[in-house]
């Protein structure tokens, strides 16, 4: 059996301001109506002997991940929560240890959650062929057949041709046919190389012996753990220690924060693939894109006759080769070329299209300044729905709150603020102290400071209300949860 392992722990800082630390790119619908996570899971449908995926994600994203899988009507085999990022090797190790429970030993198809693959049928064909190699003990990586001298990717140099039928290396190299192609051939990995400069990338492309490193892998769970023990026993020991204290939390598997933080951080490439003599690369030419920056979305989205990608309410005059995206307001561009402009409710990005890799520098500055725009949007998702900041001032804050049908906020109280709720759509059941009341549109209620209260939606349509907070401190950590349906801590 093939067990998909979807790695969904990244922050996607190069796609700021749309991608934020608490709402990263893999949870956004960038290439279609589906989010990148949903796209990744959906492209597995139709593969032979494929199991439900194991998803490894940041614990802060857990409810969004679970909800997006629910929308697909797909139940993951497990959702493993990382309390902190430790790169891909520990994440894959935790998935492998989980897969080995009950003496099972499936093939692990390790996939980043934020990649785009246009030709799903070709992707599935290559995975099916690669499974033969993985069954025989090889550690497979998928090399993207390069279409340009790209300097933003690492590369894999192909060695001798690998024969699946014999599980051996043949006496031919990838250069025998002059150029790497997406056929039935696979090659021993001769070398992983770092991101090159342009001149080196052009040589790689001309040689026909190099692939883009996709970060996708296929190997047997036990084989990966064996190789990890061989080359990075410290990582395996830390993961085994953490796995021993694994806790079930609703639909999630929670890793101990202190134990996992003690695990060294390393990638699958560095920890295992660059060390092992069992690495095999399969060519893949299936319209792959890692959507690593705004320029990548310009590459894959439809263009107008002047080469512009226009998303949302955008008007242009004499604009060329631009990526322009509006979320809340009209964006107008006149006499500009090769620009990226992305507008959201609380931030606007303006960048040269060839400088978008440096957007992460802006995010670093925002974090140093302690600004919330690096972490979250004005609209914040919660397991019960969402809230959105409307206005804020000294000693007051206004939010728009949406509660999903059948959902409820925690039973809670606040030490520093009072709240006034006005229902604008749907029906609310409000607990305030010992009193329980039903409110409908245009009705309101007041929650005094320190009073125990709860908001629920007993109806079949979303509940929408305006909340006005007033008090000396209005932070989200001023929540004392007395009872919660989602197992959250006071400010979680």
| Low-pLDDT ranges | 166-182
How much beta, percentage-wise? 25-35%
C-alpha termini separation: 37 Å
Biggest sheet, open or closed, and with what strands and sense? 6 strands, antiparallel
Rounded to the nearest angstrom, the radius of gyration is 25 Å
Our count of helices gives 11
Widest sheet, order of strands: 21-22-23-30-25-28
Secondary structure: number of strands: 31
- What is the helix content? 10-25%
Overall residue-averaged pLDDT value: 93
Taken from the alpha-carbon principal axes, the silhouette is globular
Structural class: alpha+beta
Written description of the protein model:
The chain is of the alpha+beta class and 492 residues long. Helix content is 21%, strand content 34%. The strands form 7 sheets. It has a 6-stranded antiparallel sheet, with no helix packed on it. β7 and β8 form a beta hairpin. α6 (221-231) crosses α7. It is globular.
Give the tags.
31 strands, six-stranded antiparallel sheet, globular, 492 residues, alpha+beta, single chain, 34% strand, five-stranded mixed β-barrel
State the gist of this model.
The chain has 492 residues and is α+β, with helices and mostly antiparallel strands. 21% of the residues lie in helices and 34% in strands.
How are the secondary structure elements laid out?
Layout (H helix, E strand, L loop, with lengths): L1 E7 L27 H7 L11 E5 L3 H10 L6 E5 L5 H12 L7 E6 L3 E2 L2 H16 L3 E6 L10 E9 L4 E6 L12 E8 L4 H10 L2 E11 H11 L1 H11 L3 E3 L2 E3 L2 H5 L6 H6 L5 E6 L3 E2 L4 H7 L8 E3 L2 E4 L5 E4 L4 E4 L4 E5 L4 E5 L6 H10 L10 E4 L2 E9 L2 E8 L7 E3 L3 E9 L2 E5 L2 E5 L4 E4 L5 E4 L6 E9 L8 E4 L9
Parallel strand pairs: 1-2, 1-4, 2-3, 3-12, 6-13, 15-17, 16-18, 17-19
Antiparallel strand pairs: 4-10, 5-14, 6-10, 7-8, 7-9, 7-10, 9-13, 11-12, 19-20, 21-22, 22-23, 23-30, 24-31, 25-28, 25-30, 26-27, 26-29
């Amino acid at each position: 059996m093939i067990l998909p392992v979807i790695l969904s722990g990244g922050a996607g800082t190069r796609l700021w301001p749309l991608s934020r630390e608490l709402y990263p790119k893999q949870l956004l619908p960038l290439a279609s109506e589906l989010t990148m996570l949903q796209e990744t899971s959906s492209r597995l449908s139709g593969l032979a002997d494929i199991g439900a995926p194991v998803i490894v994600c940041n614990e802060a994203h857990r409810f969004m991940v679970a909800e997006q899988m629910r929308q697909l009507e797909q139940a993951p085999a497990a959702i493993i929560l990382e309390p902190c990022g430790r790169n891909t090797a520990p994440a894959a190790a935790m998935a492998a240890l989980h897969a080995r429970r009950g003496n099972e030993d499936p093939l692990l198809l390790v996939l980043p959650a934020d990649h785009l693959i246009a030709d799903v049928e070709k992707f599935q064909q290559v995975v099916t062929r690669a499974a033969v190699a993985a069954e025989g003990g090889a550690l497979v990586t998928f090399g993207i057949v390069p279409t340009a001298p790209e300097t933003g990717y690492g590369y894999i140099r192909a060695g001798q041709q690998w024969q699946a039928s014999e599980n051996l290396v043949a006496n031919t190299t990838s250069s025998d046919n002059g150029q790497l192609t997406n056929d039935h051939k696979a090659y021993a990995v001769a070398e992983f190389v770092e991101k090159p400069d342009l001149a080196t990338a052009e040589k790689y492309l001309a040689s026909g012996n190099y692939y883009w490193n996709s970060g996708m892998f296929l190997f047997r769970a036990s084989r990966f753990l064996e190789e990890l023990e061989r080359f990075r026993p410290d990582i395996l020991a830390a993961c085994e220690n953490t796995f021993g204290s694994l806790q079930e939390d609703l639909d999630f598997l929670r890793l101990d924060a202190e134990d996992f933080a003690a695990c060294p951080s390393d990638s699958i490439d560095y920890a295992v693939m660059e060390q092992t003599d069992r690495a095999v690369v399969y060519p893949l030419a299936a319209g792959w894109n890692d959507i690593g920056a705004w320029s990548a979305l310009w590459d894959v989205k439809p263009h107008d006759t002047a080469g512009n990608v226009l998303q949302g309410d955008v008007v242009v005059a004499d604009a060329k080769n631009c990526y322009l995206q509006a979320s809340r307001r009209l964006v107008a561009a006149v006499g500009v070329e090769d620009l990226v402009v992305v507008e959201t409710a609380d931030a606007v990005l303006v960048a040269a299209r060839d400088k978008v890799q440096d957007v992460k520098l802006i995010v670093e500055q925002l974090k140093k300044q302690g600004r919330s725009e690096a972490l979250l949007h004005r609209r914040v998702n919660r397991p019960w729905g969402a809230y959105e900041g409307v206005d804020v001032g000294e000693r007051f804050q206004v939010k728009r709150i949406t509660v999903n049908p059948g959902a409820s906020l925690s039973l809670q109280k606040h030490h520093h603020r009072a709240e006034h709720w006005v229902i604008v759509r749907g029906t609310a059941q409000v607990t305030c102290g010992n009193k329980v009341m039903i409110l409908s549109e245009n009705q309101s209620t007041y929650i005094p400071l320190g009073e125990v209260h709860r908001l629920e939606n007993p109806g079949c349509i979303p509940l929408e209300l305006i909340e006005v907070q007033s008090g000396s401190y209005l932070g989200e950590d001023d929540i004392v949860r007395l009872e919660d349906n989602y197992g959250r801590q006071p400010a979680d």
